[in-house]
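Hi Y.,

Following your request, here is the sequence exactly as I used it, all 254 residues.
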Amino acid sequence: MFGRSAKGRPFLFLETFTLVQPLMPHATASWLVDNSSLTFEQIAVFCGLHILEVQAIADDTAATKLTGRDPIRAGELNQEEINRGQDDPEYKLVIQKEPDQVRRTKGPRYTPVSKRQDKPDGIAWIIRNHPEISDGQIGKLIGTTRTTIAAIRDRSHWNIANIQPKDPVTLGLASQRELDALVAKAAKAAGIEPAPQDHRLAGDREALIVELRAERETHAREAEAAHAAELAAASGEITAQPAEEAFVDPFRKI
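Below is the corresponding structure, written out as tokens. Let me know if you'd prefer a different format.
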């Protein structure tokens, strides 16, 4: 659609809209080709395909053999909508409902394939260093099953000879924040008091902070003095010494 701006310059209106496609476009197109008299263009627009793809499906020359998927049974179309499209070749089919979004079900957390072999080492480390953490909590943190955890705990795991306890944070199986929160929660549930903090180095730490702060202030004052000297030299307050006095030639004959 064309129009004109406030200054009289022509511009183009672009109509943008989002078409909702069926869950399986190619299989749906194959069913519509075989079970309706819709035009290839109508099927292509509804399924979000190119018209040549629909023609290849109709001519049975597609790269793969497709099994038709009934959009009526899937609830994406009804017979009245198909009849409306068959009566009017210019009519664009409207999908009845959007495909259901695929959502991940609850379960163990996902671990990349490259790190799955490190799971037994992380489990062994938690069992050795934090026995108060339950198997269910370990399973949620690492992303494994209770059977595997129990096998490592009673040393009946098939690869127990090669399992070496390693920090799961170092292995990349969990974050330090998640591990600390889990340890604190398990300790609270078990009635274990948190480990006392060592305050013996607190005085040294404070002294170091004071020393670093004084050093930083000294550097700041030196920088300010140097900057003031540069400004004074630029304004002519400080005159340079004569060249003869500034440089003495040791090989000059008197």
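The longest strand covers residues 2-4.

Thanks again,
Q.
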